[in-house]
């Protein structure tokens, strides 16, 4: 049973299980008559071969309030793109598959690169960015939602609850972040949020002092959730990272561009599970190790833009402070797990904290040695200014791919 707690910074909309999901869906169908809703699905081709996406499409096929589904397809050759078109064809909604590795979308990317506006690296951030640009080019959406394609516990209620706060014309929210408990197979999951982000934000507060930005981030129950929805009007000016710092980067942009009164978080599920990344202790370019470094750099960059001065001494102190807080929190998580009949491997948790502590310093050194590094992709307002024809040409590229490879 949810509580009524509000943190005072960002509005929290709970699931008190007092309204049937069907009622929310009926209301959304009414809202969508005047506020068209688009869903963005960033996907790797490999996810079409898994079990999660099949169930997601089964659930989406029952949804009537979505007018357009934009699918960003990465790591797919021609045969796999053809397969993807057939795979998604059962969706009753209008849908578009962006073949990001196809020659036409690569030509669009080359034009951006010549203008110095191309995303730095391949990944989810780049995929989402192109989907956003395509959605804006369509000019047929008032609300945009986004979620991953590897959610094993997906239901259409999750989407309804995610979209409702920004689709309801009686609400003033322009951005909504989903949250949920990370539980599966009798285990407490969500390692990066539990063991890195939460204690790191607490350690930053102790090390550099209180900041409104830190209080804002700490207000989110699950800041790394990949599910969010927003009014389309805020998208043209939003700059997102191309690396693993996507979720923190989006929250940072929302912090920069919107009033806190326009931001909310909503409880979308009682339990949530998706594909788990390996810790990757031996290779800092992969898995949770890479993710932790990118998240730390995203935080440090944002704090620096707000006037925080960092040094090697700052990061050494931050590491020590984080480590002590994180170890204490492992004890709390363990006790919470025991009372709820869940498993937590304390040895593995401590090894994870040790890796994250080292990566905090690694991210800090990288930040100090290359302060001009920025993984942020240009916003679409700048792209439109630099190349006014590009968004229209992107629509044509997707249309021609659809025709030629049908």
From TrEMBL:
Keywords: Transferase. It comes from the Bacteria. GO terms for molecular function: transferase activity. InterPro entries: Nucleotide-diphossugar_trans. This is Glycosyl transferase. It comes from Kordiimonas pumila. The lineage of its organism: Bacteria, Pseudomonadati, Pseudomonadota, Alphaproteobacteria, Kordiimonadales.
């Amino acid at each position: 049973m949810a509580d009524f707690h509000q943190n005072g910074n960002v509005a929290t909309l709970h699931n008190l299980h007092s309204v049937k999901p069907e009622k929310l869906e009926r209301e959304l169908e009414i809202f969508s008559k005047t506020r068209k809703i688009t869903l963005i699905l960033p996907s790797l081709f490999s996810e079409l071969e898994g079990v999660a996406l099949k169930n997601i499409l089964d659930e989406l096929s029952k949804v009537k309030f979505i007018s357009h589904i934009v699918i960003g397809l990465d790591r797919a050759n021609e045969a796999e793109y053809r397969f993807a078109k057939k795979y998604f064809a059962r969706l009753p909604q209008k849908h578009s598959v962006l073949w990001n590795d196809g020659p036409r979308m690569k030509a669009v990317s080359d034009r951006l690169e010549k203008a110095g506006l191309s995303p730095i690296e391949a990944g989810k951030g780049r995929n989402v960015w192109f989907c956003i640009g395509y959605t804006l080019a369509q000019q047929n959406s008032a609300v945009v939602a986004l979620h991953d394609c590897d959610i094993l516990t997906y239901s259409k209620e999750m989407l309804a609850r995610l979209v409702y706060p920004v689709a309801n014309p009686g609400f003033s929210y322009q951005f909504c972040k989903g949250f949920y408990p990370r539980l599966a197979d009798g285990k407490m999951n969500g390692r990066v949020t539990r063991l890195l982000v939460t204690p790191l934000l607490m350690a930053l507060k102790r090390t550099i002092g209180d900041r409104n930005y830190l209080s804002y981030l700490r207000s989110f129950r699950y800041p790394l959730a990949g599910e969010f929805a927003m009014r389309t009007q805020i998208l043209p000016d939003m700059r997102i990272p191309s690396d693993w710092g996507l979720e923190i980067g989006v929250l940072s942009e929302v912090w920069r561009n919107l009033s806190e009164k326009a931001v909310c978080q909503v409880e979308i599920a009682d339990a949530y599970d998706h594909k788990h990344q390996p810790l990757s202790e031996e290779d800092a370019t992969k898995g949770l190790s890479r993710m932790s470094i990118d998240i730390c750099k995203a935080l440090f960059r944002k704090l620096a833009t707000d006037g925080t001065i960092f040094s090697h001494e700052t990061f050494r102190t931050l590491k020590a402070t984080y480590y002590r807080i994180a170890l204490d929190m492992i004890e709390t998580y363990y006790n919470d797990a025991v009372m709820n009949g869940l498993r937590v491997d304390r040895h593995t948790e401590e090894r994870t904290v040790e890796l994250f502590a080292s990566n905090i310093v690694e991210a800090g050194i990288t930040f100090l040695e290359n302060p001009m590094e920025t993984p942020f992709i240009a916003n679409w307002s700048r792209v439109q200014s630099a190349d006014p024809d590009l968004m229209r040409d992107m629509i044509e590229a997707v249309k021609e791919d659809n025709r030629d490879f049908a």
